Amino acid sequence: MKTIRLNDGTHVPAVGQGTWRMGEDRSLKKYEVAALQRGLDLGMTLIDTAEMYGQGGAEEVVGKAIKGRRDEVFLVSKVYPHNAGGYALLESCEESLRRLRTDYLDLYLLHWRGTFSFEQTIGGMEYLKSAGKIKRWGVSNLDVADMNELMACNGADGCAVNQVLYHLGSRGIEFDLLPWQRRQKMPVMGYSPLAQHGFLRQELLDSPALQQVAERHEATIFQILLAWSMRDGDVVTIPKAIGITHVEENARAAELVLSADDLSLLDSAFRRRNEAAARCRLGSTDNRITEALRDSSGGIFKVFLRASVALRLTVPSPTYPLCAVRTSLTYGRWWPYSFWLFWPPLRYCRRLN
C-alpha cells in the first residue's frame, strides 16, 4: 500500500476508508462493519468518520469494526463547528471516544469553520493532545483565506492536514489551496474521490476518456478515479464502500500508476470544468455545496452555474437553502447536511484580481 507522510513523520496509507452515511440504517450495520474490517485486512488502515455522520452512528460502526484491532488503525474523527471550543470540544471528543470504543484518536479535525475562533479551537485541540485524548489535530473544508488566518494563530503549526473535496470533476483546490498546502508541506485528505451520487458521478461514469483509460489498465472507472487522486503522492483519498468487492477494488487502485498520456487525456476531457474553476474560485465549503447543488438539481442548476461562471457573477445565497430543501426531498427526510447547508458563512464565487 502506498503511504503519505504527515508533517510529524508518520506515514498513513494513501487510500483510506470513509464512513459518510454509515450508521444510518441498522439493517446495513453488519455489512458496513464487514466492509471496514476487510479494508483493514487489505492495508486501508486509515478510517475517517465524524460525530455528524449518522449522528454518531458511523462512529459506533467503526468502533465495532476495529474492536481488537485498534493498534492497526489510524483513526480520524471530526467535531461539529458548534462544538469546536471550550467545554463543548472536550465533551464531544469524549463522546466520540466512547462511541469508537477507544481512549484516543490519531487525528481530530474541525469539520468546517463555525462561530468559535481559531484560537479557541486550537487551544482546545492542544489541551486534548496534552491529555492524551488525541495525537494530532487538523481542519476540514477551509480555503486559502481561512488557512492563512489559521496559521497566524499561536499553535497553528500543529495542524496536520486539511480535508477537502477533491476528485477529477471537482478540482478547484488545484488553483490555490493545493499549491499553498504543498508549500506548507501539509498533505491534503480528499473526500468524495468518486464524486457524490447524482448528476456529477454519472457524468464521470459516462466519460469516454475515463472509460478508455480504465480499459487500458483493465480496471474500473472508480479505480481510475482513485489512482488519479493519488497521482502526485501527497493526497490521502478516503472512498466509502459497504460492499466487499468494492472495498477490494479500492485497495487495488493503490497499485495503479497512470501514465503521462492517461493524465493528458483526462485533463483534456475535463478541461472545460477546469477552466470554469479557474475563473470562479470557490472555497472548499462552496465546492461541496456547488457539487451537492449540481448533483441534486441536475440540468437546471447546471445551466445556472455555467451562466454564472461565464459572466463571473456571484452565486446568490438563496441557492444554498434551495439546495438543502431539494436534497432533503431527494433523500426523503431532513438529513443533517440540510442544516449544514444553511449554516456556514459562505464565501460565494469571487472574481480573480
Textual characterization of the structure:
By secondary structure, the chain is an alpha/beta fold. It has two domains: 259 residues, TIM Barrel; 63 residues, no CATH class. 47% of the residues lie in helices and 10% in strands. It is built from 16 helices and nine strands. The strands form two sheets. Strands 3-4-5-6-7-8-9 form a seven-stranded parallel beta sheet. Strands 1-2 form a two-stranded antiparallel sheet. Helix 1 crosses helix 2 and helix 15 packs antiparallel against helix 16. The longest helix is centred in the first third of the chain and has 15 residues. The radius of gyration is 19 Å and the shape is globular.
* Binned strand content: 5-15%
Total strands: the figure is 9
What is Rg?
19 Å
Q: What is CATH's topology name of the largest domain?
A: TIM Barrel
Identify the overall geometry: globular
* CATH H-tier superfamily of the largest domain: NADP-dependent oxidoreductase domain
Taking the sheet with the most strands, its summary is: 7 strands, parallel
Question: How widely separated are the two ends?
Answer: 42 Å
Question: What are the segments in which pLDDT stays under 50 over at least 5 consecutive residues?
Answer: 288-303, 305-353
Mean pLDDT figure: 83
CATH class of the largest domain: Alpha Beta
The CATH architecture designation of the largest domain is Alpha-Beta Barrel
Approximately how much helix is present in the residues? 40-55%
Total individual domains: 2
One letter per element, helices H and strands E, the order comes to: EEHEHEHEHEHEHEHHHEHHHHHHH
Number of helices: 16
Strand line-up across the major sheet: 3-4-5-6-7-8-9
Q: Helix- and strand-based class?
A: alpha/beta
